[in-house]
Amino acid sequence: MKITTAGESHGKALVAIIEGLPAGLELDLNEIGEYLALRQSGYGRGGRQRIEKDEAEILAGVRNRTTLGSPVALAVFNRDYENWKEFMAPEGCDLSQRRLTKVRPGHADLTGIKKFATDDARNILERASARETAVRVAAGSICRQLLAKLGVEITGYVRRAGEVNDENEYAFEEIRKNRLPELFMMDAQKQREAVKRIDGLKSAGDTCGGIAEIRVRGLKSGFGSCMTYSEKLDARLCSALVSVQAVKGAEVGLGFGCAVRRGSEVHDEIECENGNYFRTTNRAGGIEGGMSNGEEIVLRAAMKPIPTLMKGLRTVDIADNLPARAAAERSDVCAILAFEVICESAVACELAAVLLERLGGDNMAEVIRRYGELPL
Predict the structure, then answer these.
(1) Which residue(s) pair with 161 in the sheet?
(2) Band of the pLDDT at 46, cuts 50, 70, 90?
(3) How far apart are the C-alpha atoms of 129 and 124, rounded to whole Å?
(4) Which 3 state secondary structure label does DSSP give 302?
(5) How far apart are CA 78 and CA 134, in angstroms?
(6) Can you tell me whether residue 350 is helix, strand or coil?
(7) Averaged over 188-201, what is the pLDDT?
(8) Where are any strands of DSSP class E within 108-175?
(9) Residues 255, 261, 263, 264: what is their CA dihedral angle, to the nearest 10 degrees?
(10) Which of 76, 144, 249, 373 has its CA 20 to 30 A from that of 325?
(11) pLDDT (tens digit, 9 = 90+) per residue, 312-361?
């Protein structure tokens, strides 16, 4: 299975094509809309969310809410395009307006200008923008529905918002039922502290990031491989997370914590009951030797602070190479809840691809049967 996205932040639409989905997957279109709405929510979001109300439109590959086995094409149309048509229309537009030459630290602006030989960062930022993740969430919802048919579930929560960190551990079901609105944190007091910090950052014209923890339950052992590095499940899932805009780190299980503990405090001991093997702990995060081991998969991704600051950092205006303050595009103060939803979607897309590579099958009945025949 392969997913490709296209589209610009202020262009006509964001588009995704999903190749390799089996026929016979019945889709809940309302669920796609629910995840798109979640992506637009959360405390600390900016003005763009008041303009857009994202909805996914399926263009091809589905009939009567059921996949046909052909590529699925879907689009999220940008309502804000009408305000930008004069400057963004592919048929012809005014390139002298909405130029961005005061390149922003932390963005793709300057490097993209040099790489793609342009003198307008607009050509770079429109694609580099996290707005692209809207259609990835839509595609991720479809992949999540495929996984659910096999009994594989995904959830997650915000472990850290800016300086406020929650070091408690939570069970899968607890996360799914009890994560709090506004920031998707689990601890009410921690979330109140985080909200207060975000208010302070907004007043100061600053931003923050955070850490999202993603859980996968129900995946059988043996997905991924120890035989070639390109097939390692942890490498693929971490790559999927790092592909999300603003991610600067990803880890599995204890992650970097493994480096400062003794081996006896890191490795999961194995037991057997009625012929079924299991680990007494899950410090490996459900992946050993690049393969799922049947335990719950635990992933974390670190999001850097949003680089568009309203007060603007020091930079250079490439139009004259003189010192300047970075341009302040419309931006969020904190988008950590949306980030968590996006990370879930990125994991769902990659997991669906991994499962279909091993299982094969042209229709869902074949896929479900083959998955059911695998040992735990």
Answers:
(1) 164, 210
(2) confident
(3) 9
(4) strand
(5) 10
(6) helix
(7) 97
(8) 153-161, 164-165
(9) -110
(10) 249
(11) 899 999 999 999 999 776 679 999 999 999 999 999 999 999 999 999 99
